[in-house]
Amino acid sequence: MKVREGRGFTYDELKGAGIKRKEAQGVGIAIDHRRENKTEETYQANVARLKLYKSKLVVFPRNPTSKRAKKGDASKDELKKAQQVSVANLFPVTQPFVRAKARKITEAERNAVVSRVVRTARLDEKLWGRREKRAKDKAEGKKKEKKDKDGEMDE
User: Fold this and answer.
1) What's the pLDDT band for 76 if we cut at 50, 70, 90?
2) Per residue in 52-81, is it b (16+ CB within 10 Å) or e — as a string?
3) Distance CA 12, CA 17 (A)
4) Burial 127-136 (b: 16+ CB within 10 A, else e)
5) Separation in Å, CA 130 to CA 33, 87, 121, 134
6) 119 is in which domain, residue-wise?
7) Domain boundary residue, one of 59, 89, 119
8) pTM to 2 decimals?
9) pLDDT at 16
10) Looking at residues 35-46, what average pLDDT do you find?
């Protein structure tokens, strides 16, 4: 699937990168409380993006004339080297490129009726729960019949 930019990072991703919620809001990181991490790969990729951003981040002090720098503020040397970065390139999303090799079509693939395969797959998905329940009830019914037969033979 295509990797797209979202509306923000999850709290778990921020925690994985070692960034606090208030700190994230203060340095321009968007937070989306509705998002969930569905796969480990996207979680790791977003944590890596956050760590990269944090490593490049230069926090200017609120009061530059103050002699004591607060925790997290950049040093004077870092402030001189700092450059403005456009907002569009803060969290670049890279697309993984997987090249598929060409191969010959097999006889089974050539003879397969794809619409039938798709229809049966959809039906199997739709009726999965009902079929599972029927199989369970049938198994319980056989157990009861067996118990009844064993009970009659003992008497």
Assistant:
1) low
2) ebeeebebebeeeeeeeeeeebbeeeeeee
3) 9
4) eeeeeeeeee
5) 36, 52, 15, 6
6) 107-154
7) 89
8) 0.53
9) 95
10) 91
